[in-house]
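Hello Y.,

Per our agreement to keep a running log of every chain we model this quarter, I'm adding this entry. I've kept the format consistent with earlier entries: sequence first, then predicted structure.
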Amino acid sequence: MKINIKGETITLKYTFRSLIIYEKITGESFRPNGLTEIIAFFYSVIIGSNKDLALTFDEFLEWLDENPTTLAQYTEWLTDVISQNNYIANKSADAKEESEEVKKNS
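Predicted structure for the entry above:
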Protein backbone atom coordinates (compact mmCIF):
# COMPACT_ATOMS: atom_id res chain seq x y z
CA MET A 1 0.00 0.00 0.00
CA LYS A 2 1.21 3.48 -0.81
CA ILE A 3 0.26 6.74 0.87
CA ASN A 4 1.23 10.33 0.27
CA ILE A 5 2.06 12.32 3.37
CA LYS A 6 4.04 15.54 3.72
CA GLY A 7 4.65 15.51 -0.03
CA GLU A 8 6.26 12.07 0.00
CA THR A 9 4.93 8.82 -1.39
CA ILE A 10 5.58 6.03 1.10
CA THR A 11 5.23 2.32 0.46
CA LEU A 12 4.02 0.82 3.72
CA LYS A 13 5.99 -2.15 5.02
CA TYR A 14 5.13 -4.47 7.89
CA THR A 15 8.58 -4.84 9.43
CA PHE A 16 10.38 -5.55 12.68
CA ARG A 17 11.30 -1.84 12.69
CA SER A 18 7.60 -0.93 12.74
CA LEU A 19 6.90 -3.39 15.55
CA ILE A 20 9.80 -2.03 17.61
CA ILE A 21 8.67 1.58 17.05
CA TYR A 22 5.17 0.59 18.20
CA GLU A 23 6.56 -1.06 21.34
CA LYS A 24 8.66 2.03 22.13
CA ILE A 25 5.62 4.29 21.73
CA THR A 26 3.10 2.19 23.65
CA GLY A 27 5.25 0.05 25.93
CA GLU A 28 3.34 -3.03 24.73
CA SER A 29 3.52 -5.65 21.99
CA PHE A 30 1.22 -5.07 19.03
CA ARG A 31 -2.19 -6.67 19.49
CA PRO A 32 -4.78 -4.86 17.37
CA ASN A 33 -7.61 -4.73 19.90
CA GLY A 34 -8.99 -1.27 19.22
CA LEU A 35 -8.79 1.94 17.27
CA THR A 36 -5.98 3.40 19.39
CA GLU A 37 -3.73 0.39 18.75
CA ILE A 38 -4.47 0.37 15.02
CA ILE A 39 -3.79 4.09 14.63
CA ALA A 40 -0.61 3.92 16.74
CA PHE A 41 0.61 1.01 14.61
CA PHE A 42 -0.30 2.87 11.40
CA TYR A 43 1.95 5.71 12.57
CA SER A 44 4.67 3.20 13.46
CA VAL A 45 4.44 1.59 10.02
CA ILE A 46 4.78 4.98 8.32
CA ILE A 47 7.82 5.93 10.41
CA GLY A 48 9.29 2.43 10.00
CA SER A 49 8.77 2.51 6.23
CA ASN A 50 10.55 5.85 5.83
CA LYS A 51 12.99 6.46 8.66
CA ASP A 52 13.97 9.87 7.25
CA LEU A 53 10.41 11.24 7.42
CA ALA A 54 10.01 13.93 10.06
CA LEU A 55 6.43 13.37 11.19
CA THR A 56 5.07 13.93 14.68
CA PHE A 57 2.14 11.92 15.95
CA ASP A 58 0.03 15.11 16.04
CA GLU A 59 0.88 15.81 12.38
CA PHE A 60 -0.06 12.24 11.55
CA LEU A 61 -3.42 12.60 13.33
CA GLU A 62 -4.13 15.85 11.47
CA TRP A 63 -3.28 14.12 8.17
CA LEU A 64 -5.51 11.19 9.13
CA ASP A 65 -8.40 13.56 9.93
CA GLU A 66 -7.96 15.08 6.45
CA ASN A 67 -7.78 11.60 4.82
CA PRO A 68 -10.29 9.48 6.77
CA THR A 69 -10.78 6.83 4.06
CA THR A 70 -7.08 5.98 4.30
CA LEU A 71 -7.64 4.31 7.68
CA ALA A 72 -10.08 1.82 6.13
CA GLN A 73 -7.60 1.10 3.32
CA TYR A 74 -4.79 0.66 5.85
CA THR A 75 -6.91 -1.68 7.98
CA GLU A 76 -7.64 -3.84 4.94
CA TRP A 77 -3.93 -3.86 4.02
CA LEU A 78 -2.93 -4.76 7.58
CA THR A 79 -5.47 -7.59 7.74
CA ASP A 80 -4.10 -9.00 4.47
CA VAL A 81 -0.49 -8.78 5.67
CA ILE A 82 -1.27 -10.47 8.98
CA SER A 83 -3.22 -13.21 7.17
CA GLN A 84 -0.30 -13.82 4.80
CA ASN A 85 2.16 -13.98 7.71
CA ASN A 86 -0.08 -16.44 9.57
CA TYR A 87 -0.41 -18.59 6.45
CA ILE A 88 3.38 -18.70 6.00
CA ALA A 89 3.92 -19.46 9.69
CA ASN A 90 1.39 -22.29 9.55
CA LYS A 91 2.99 -23.75 6.41
CA SER A 92 6.41 -23.62 8.08
CA ALA A 93 5.04 -25.37 11.17
CA ASP A 94 3.40 -28.04 8.97
CA ALA A 95 6.65 -28.62 7.09
CA LYS A 96 8.57 -28.90 10.37
CA GLU A 97 6.08 -31.44 11.72
CA GLU A 98 6.33 -33.48 8.51
CA SER A 99 10.12 -33.42 8.70
CA GLU A 100 10.09 -34.57 12.33
CA GLU A 101 7.60 -37.32 11.48
CA VAL A 102 9.84 -38.57 8.66
CA LYS A 103 12.83 -38.60 11.05
CA LYS A 104 10.84 -40.58 13.63
CA ASN A 105 9.81 -43.16 11.06
CA SER A 106 13.30 -43.59 9.63
